[in-house]
Structures are given as structure tokens and as C-alpha cells.
Predict the structure.
Amino acid sequence: MSALTPTNTPSFMDLKDPRYAYMYGFLQADGHLSQSTRDRGRLTVEINIRDIAILREFQLLTPYSSSITERVRATNFSEEHHSATWSLCALEARTLLNELGLPYGKKSTKIRPPRFNFSRRDYLRGVIDADGSVGYTGQGFPFVSLTTSSTAVGAYLCHYAKRITGAERQISRNARDGVYSILYLKEVAITLAEHLYYPGCLALERKMDAAASLSSWERPEGMRRTQSVRRWKDREDRILLAHGNAASAAEELGRTEQSCSLRLWRLKTGRVPMPPELPEIL
């Protein structure tokens, strides 16, 4: 067990600071904020012991007393799972995190990117380090992926990645467990990984190494490049028209704001037909 009370840490959780933006994204995805009576509560992050170094970085960035503990227990995946947990109890810190958008209790569907200025790529790297993967598929293709229950976070990754790579992705909940699985492959994954995992950034060491390894991949001779186009469905057109606003519709539909804006313009100007009206249910 270790305990540390760092001093002189400026602007705790200033999300314009890349370190805190990363930390906040990680906490949103993998942290748990609990509260009890008389203002008591705790922020905890439990991860595999192999990644304990990132918890020590969080300690150093936090100007409040916190602790790291270790334990070994049986899980569904291992009889002896060795984990490390970072715990922070300070009310002031918990209140700030909650005001920033880290909910108390179950949060998987509630989390969303900050609504104000923040370091975007660092925030997304934190989310991916906690709930995503970077590496090679079984077929040997570079990939970057994220699994999330949050519509807002999934849509934001798609929007941001399109700006960086040009690749458009749609999000839809997995029928089995209701989560979004977003995947980028090959050159798109390489470009995205190079952007997110830049030299000197705060990150899980193993994922930093995995991201760096992707750049060595070369497309095999003769492998075709494909680009899928997501066609608009009547149901999506109805949702878009109901919103009447590209920005708000983009979040629900898992499309980019630019795509929604263009589609809305085409519908309103008659360049594409309006969706058929749904029959009334008596």
C-alpha cells in the first residue's frame, strides 16, 4: 500500500491540461464515484496490477491524500486476479469531479464528453485506455477499438475520428449486451493511433507500445481498399426531422453533425423524398 499527498499541483482537473483531460476520460470509463451520509464517499479505480503505474501518476496529479492498495481474488476470468485500486475520499475533489460530469453510482450510459473547452485527443485516449483496445487483429491488421455503453461518448469518438482520419463510422448497440463496439482498422487505425498516442503523452505503457507498433504495418500487395457508405433509413430521417437540428440529432443517430446537416437540407429542399408517414395505431 502507498499513500501520497502531492503539493503544488496547479489547477486540479483543469481539462485544458492534457494530463487532466486524459485522467478525466479514464475516470469516466473505469472509475466509480460513491457517496454516503454526512458527505462521506469515495472515488475508486481498480485495474490490473500490470497497469499500476498509471494509478501512481493519478496520485501525483491529485493535491489530496489518496491511497493505492492491492488484492488478489477469484473472478470469472481468473482464480487469482491481481489488481490495484486507487482511492480518493476528499469531498472537495469528489464534488469537483461530479460537477465536471462524473456521476455518482452507475454511470456507464450517463457519461459524456465535457461541454466546455478541453483537450480532446487526451480525453479520448483516456477513455480508450480504460475501455478500448489497440493492437493487431487475429488476421494481423492494425486496429483501434472502443466498447462503451454511452451514446454520447461513442458518437463523439466517431465524430472526432472522422475529422482526423476521414473515416465515417456508425454506432449501434450490440443486440447481445446493449453496448456500442466501434472499430477502426488498417491505415485508419494507424493514423488515429499516431494522433492519440503522441510522444510524451500520459498513457498506459502497454497501449503506448502497441500504438507505436502499428506504424510498421504495410498493406499487402493486391489487398483492395474498400469504403462503405452508410445509407439513410426512413427511421433515421424521421428522427432527424423530429429534432430539426443537426447537432442534437447527430448524438442520437450516431452520425456526424455535418452528415445530419446535409441530410436535413436535402430533405427540406426536396432533393431526397420525405420518409413515409407511419400508420396510426388505433
Q: What stands out?
A: The first helix runs from residue 18 to 30. The chain is about 40% helix and 20% strand.
